[in-house]
Specification:
Strand order of the largest sheet: 1-8-3-6
Helix content: 40-55%
Strand content: 15-25%
Number of strands: 8
Largest sheet: 4 strands, antiparallel
Number of helices: 5
Structural class: alpha+beta
Radius of gyration: 22 Å
């Protein structure tokens, strides 16, 4: 597969702006807004196999990446086990690290470049400059990020409800199995 940077029909900034307004990124922004936001971003190349975000990391976590090219495995640690599970694969047009950009809290997942990655990075310092220089664009960017995070929270809540329903059904099945095994189905009335 050839790189968007090897034979560009569009300047890398234009590619980044177009990817920023896709459904997997921030489709609430206009292309004109995205062009202004991209001007505050810096390019970043990440080698294949590199772990560039570590779950729980508390330093250098005040930025987000827009994936321009390549694939990233997103993993979460499995509680009580000494392993992790891939929960998502993200490619061009995906944003990673928006929560860190906004609040600088510890990273919520580990991200590994499964291929060579070309990305555009927006740091919190650059976001603050954008808010000062282009307050309306900055406000629309923050609203778009907030909406994206709210959508993710709603999806996570939906998944948790489904998991809770499955867990309840499993518990009921286990109880029936245990009752049958021990002969304590239901007390017989006399």
């Amino acid at each position: 597969m050839s790189s968007i940077f090897e034979s560009p029909d569009l300047a890398p900034e234009e590619v980044a702006a177009r990817l920023l307004v896709t459904a997997s990124a921030l489709d609430d922004l206009t292309l004109a807004d995205a062009v202004k936001v991209v001007a505050y971003m810096r390019p970043k190349r990440i080698k294949s196999g590199t772990v560039f975000i570590q779950e729980g990391e508390i330093r250098q976590n005040d930025y987000m990446l827009l994936v321009l090219e390549g694939d990233i495995a997103v993993e979460n640690a499995m509680p009580g086990l000494n392993e992790s599970m891939v929960v998502n694969i993200m490619g061009p047009g995906h944003l990673i690290g928006e929560m860190g950009l906004l609040d600088g809290s510890p990273r919520s997942a580990t991200c590994t470049a499964t291929t060579e990655i070309y990305a555009a990075v927006l740091s919190r310092a650059a976001l603050m400059r954008l808010l000062k220089d282009e307050p309306r664009v900055g406000a629309r960017l923050l609203l778009a990020i907030s909406r994206r995070m709210a959508d993710r929270l709603r999806e996570t809540t939906r998944k948790l409800r489904t998991f809770a329903q499955m867990n309840k059904a499993l518990q009921q099945e286990l109880q029936v199995g245990m009752n049958n095994r021990t002969g304590f189905d239901t007390p017989k009335r006399r």
